[in-house]
């Protein structure tokens, strides 16, 4: 038994909107343990909808449709389904009554076009829509085939999914065995290097381990099929331990954790505070740190020292050193970190200075060259050189610079 | 001739990520005037990929794949395509050389698993990836069928699309009668209000006008079908003029312009400079301003004054006023803006202080209350109160606060 998601809507084909409905339903199917191998998007066109239906009905048992249930002439899902399965449409008095009441509630009368929404295939069960006017259906047009339809409006679809579809699918025996997953996150190691180290673990079947990489971060997702969270944990825990051993200091957290939240937790545990001095990231490091609710407990703020005058005025960087070594240098990174720490009176100071590009690079100091400075609670400061290259562009250099700074601080706190 | 998008990735089936690639390519196909009726998502499974390929090759002429080009064993797109079309894979020396060089550039050596990425079907053209290690292909496995493959990483896919796919598709005759569009951007007006004012313009057919709203910003996309950019401009220009009149001061820019880039242009034109003082945005305002290449010409930096001690130490905010009026107040917003302007010596000072939540709100000062301060080149300072509410969450309050600050500065510079 497998499910398939079919989203109907020309706006998806035109790229006007993201397909959030497919993502939501996919996540829900995984939670219920319903296997799901295909998603299709097709426009509001009966011939093409039938073509998709033909393919889907031949390979899946539960077809989940979104979109095309509205009152306008281009909403064709229900009548195309009825036509495909050679079943007459029947007007349902309870839907007319429901729509009439909803309109009355808003001081309006039902428009004739809404009448169409009360026409459902004979034998189909109503999948009620308590939010909007378009109901869906739960229907078995063939013995081993179930069709569920939802409107395309995400809020209505989600409501109906929670209120009616989940109880229905559970009544059919689903939800006893679900997929549970945990994502381990790594920084400073490439996807291929980590995958090679993980070796045979990537071939295991329950749990499975799958690598993903994005913006310099590598993730390993461990997914188990199990009858409960506890049973899944029993499968996932030993694999997590192995993978964390393999990742070593590159492993930094899991699931919802971010580099900023992990740094925050470490600072909070140590009763320490942090200030930042940012040049090329221009505020992005502070932005990441303050994404975390409650970050004011350990993050005090800092300076956006984009112009050299600010490095001198707010951070006390030596102007002769700036002239001799340049703003993008080991020494200036250290002075920025030490300066923001001492001026603000925090335990730690963290700085970033670099060349984000596209302009400003030289042969000696190319785009992508970044220095990160760390001033520790003992007043020592250190700096670290990174070369991120210029091929991935300005936004990427800035993002990985801020993340690398957080990662460097994480390691420094850990080594205390 | 029609195109079809096939996205390969188990993470899409598990609902872990939104299918932004499908949306991007859909938009691009529309721009080129290439009809596109189906999108499919399938997992990293050769049997199912072949099944999808069978269906797609039977109904479309241009198959565009994303995902499954990485170095790990579950990346199967290329070999499955070769297998389906019974074509041998051949190792391409130029890809090995390219990957080796990219790794060397980052001071690393190519891992053996990357070798797999150099195996392409015989006869396929390389679709180069200047950003990452995985190249794609442009291939005609049958006379009337073209296959293009892209990695799943959005930044790499988009780069490759722009650099190689568009020129290729244009060389095949596409893009002559295309859809041309222009997006007008508005801040500080709701979608429904703007749509009501636009009235009958929303019903026009060539060009069409469609409203979108996202994170407080409202966009009107004007799309024309025409044989050239110039012909499209003739259709779009008069509608743009009407819509800009309707939007009044809420209109701020179009297409790639952002509030930060518009503010930057205004400052550059006036020969003026800017410094910021951020509390609740924690660096997000500086981050937005420095996203713009060349922003160092007018943006000097500022202070992240998250903790009150920083407001006093770096900005000279009066500590008695802080105690009496609170950090989130008209007076403190003004002092922050004036303080950062005078301490850094810029023409303008811009500040944000507010309660981003979820905690920290009171009845008098609820979550979502934000003050924006503007200090102008004449040394006057003003502040503005916003109430963004708490239902949309912390990230939203922070984002619209930073945008509102930029918008406020934009209007202040404009009124000079």
Keywords, separated by commas or semicolons:
homodimer; 416 residues; alpha/beta; Molybdenum Cofactor Biosythetic Enzyme, Chain A; Alpha-Beta Plaits; Maf protein; 3 domains; six-stranded mixed sheet; five-stranded mixed sheet; elongated
How would you describe this structure to a colleague?
By secondary structure, chain A is α/β, with parallel strands linked by helices. Chain A has 3 domains: about 5-170, MoaB/Mog-like domain (Molybdenum Cofactor Biosythetic Enzyme, Chain A), CATH 3.40.980.10; about 180-255, 2-Layer Sandwich (Alpha-Beta Plaits), CATH 3.30.70.2860; about 260-415, Maf protein (Alpha-Beta Complex), CATH 3.90.950. Chain A is built from 14 helices and 17 strands. In chain A, strands 2-1-3-8-7-6 form a 6-stranded mixed beta sheet, sandwiched between helices. In chain A, helix 2 packs parallel to helix 6 (about 155-170), helix 3 packs across helix 4 (about 75-85) and helix 9 runs parallel beside helix 14 (about 395-415). The longest helix of chain A is centred in the last third of the chain and has 22 residues, at about 395-415. The two termini of chain A are about 55 Å apart. The interface between A and B is large, with 97 and 95 residues.
Q: What layout of secondary structure does this protein have?
A:
Two copies of one chain form a homodimer.
Chain A: E1 3-8, H1 10-13, H2 20-32, E2 36-42, H3 46-57, E3 62-66, H4 77-84, E4 89-91, H5 93-105, E5 119-121, E6 125-127, E7 136-142, E8 145-150, H6 154-171, E9 178-187, H7 191-198, E10 208-214, E11 217-226, H8 229-247, E12 251-254, H9 259-270, E13 274-278, H10 284-290, E14 299-305, H11 308-315, H12 319-325, H13 330-344, E15 348-354, E16 369-375, E17 381-387, H14 394-415
Parallel strand pairs in A: 1-2, 1-3, 3-8, 13-14, 13-15
Antiparallel strand pairs in A: 4-5, 6-7, 7-8, 9-11, 9-12, 10-11, 15-16, 16-17
Helix pairs in contact in A: 2-6, 3-4, 9-14
